[in-house]
C-alpha cells in the first residue's frame, strides 16, 4: 500500500471533504520533508508553504535553533505532570511571555499553559467564569464576540464564537451574544464606492461599528463576563481586517464598564502583524490573552492563556478557590523549550526587521491582483495577504458557493508550486518569515497565475 492508499483507508482529516479524494485522478500531496519556506512531497515536488502550515510555522521548517533546542530537551526530560510540579522551561517561558506582552509598559501577566488555540480559549472562558462565580459577581454569565469570529472547535470555544463553521452545532453551544464586526469590505455602513480599492475608507470619521459595540455593552453590561476578539484580523472569517483605532476604543469602553476583554492572538501573535502581538499595534493590554500556533515556532503543540495578575488573585487563598481546569500535556517541556528557542530567534535574528521588509515587498506585489476583474478586495496586514474573489466587483456580490472559486484557484496553485488554503472565496497568503523576497514573488506569481487560469 502507498501512503496515499493507507491514508485514504484509515485516516480522517479535519475540514476535508472526501469528495475530491474519491476521484481516482486526485493526488493527495504526501509531505515528507520541510526546510525553511519549502515542503517536499514523496515524489520530490517542492512547494512553497504559503500558509505556514495552517498559520503556525513562523520561522520556516526545521529552523536549526529550534531543532537543537528540542533535541537538547529530549536529553533531559520528555514530559512531566504540571499538577503541583514545575520545571525550568515553563517558568522561564511564562516570565518571558509576561515581558514581551507588557514588560514594564503594562500589567503583569500570569500564564496558564495548554495545548492548542481552542484549549487556550476554553481555559480563558472557564477562568473568567470561575472568577466571577467566586468573587461576588455570579450574574456575569454572558460572553460577547464579533460576527464570524472563530476561536477553535471545542464546544466552549464554539459557544463564544459566531463562525459559519459552527452553525450546525447551535444546540450544543451555550448562549452567548454577538455584534457586527468592524470588517469594512462587508460592512453595511461602508460608504466606500463599490469597486473602490480602499474598502476601509468607509471607516474614516465614521464609527457606526463602535456605536454598535457601545450599545451592546450598555444593554448587557451588568451580565457580561467578557468580550472576545481577534485583534486587528479575524482570520477564519476570511482575513477580515479591522480599522486602526477600533481596538483602542474597545479597550476604553470595556474598562469604563468593568467588563473583561480577551484577546485571541492565536493567529495574530508572534510577528504575523509585524509586532509580537496584534494588541501591541494599538498599545492596549487585554485582561486575558490566548496564544498558540506560532508560540513554538510551529514545531509542537503548546498554548498559553495569559491572565492579569489581579484576576489570578481571585483564585488564591482557600484551597477551594483553585482553578478547576487542566490538561495532561499542560506545559510540556519539549514545547516550552521550542517556544524559548523561537522567542530567542525573534530577539536575536532581526526577525521583526525582516517582517517589515517583506511586508513592504508583499504590498507592492499584491497590487497585481487588482487587474483581475473578479478580485473585489485586496487586504494586507503585516505578512497576511487576502484577496477576496467576487462575481461582480461593482456590487461586491459573491460567487455561488457551489462554484468553489477559492478552492479551485488554490488547487491550481499547487501545480505552480504553492500550497495554500483559502477561506471560502478569500485567497490567503500567510508566508513563513524566513521567506526571501524571491520566495514571496514566487508565491504571489503562482497564485496570480492560478487565478487567471481558473477564472480567465
Ligand atoms: C484566531 C484563532 N483562534 C483559535 C484558533 C483555534 O486554534 P487551534 O486550531 O490550534 O485549536 C484558531 C485556528 O485557526 C484561530 O485562528
Number of strands: 16
Strand content: 15-25%
Overall mean pLDDT stands at 94
- Radius of gyration, in Å, reads 22 Å
How would you portray this structure in words?
35% of the residues lie in helices and 16% in strands. With 456 residues, the protein is α/β, with parallel strands linked by helices. It folds into two domains: 3-62 and 350-454, Alpha-Beta Complex (Aspartate Aminotransferase, domain 1); 69-348, Type I PLP-dependent aspartate aminotransferase-like (Major domain) (Aspartate Aminotransferase, domain 2, 3-Layer(aba) Sandwich). The strands form four sheets. A seven-stranded mixed sheet has the order 4-12-11-10-7-5-6, sandwiched between helices. A four-stranded mixed sheet has the order 1-2-3-15. Helix 4 runs antiparallel to helix 12. The protein is globular, with a radius of gyration of 22 Å. It binds pyridoxal-5'-phosphate. Residues 116-118, 150-152, 230, 235-236, 264, 266-267, 292 line the site of pyridoxal-5'-phosphate.
Concise overview:
Helices cover 35% and strands 16% of the residues. With 456 residues, the chain is an alpha/beta fold.
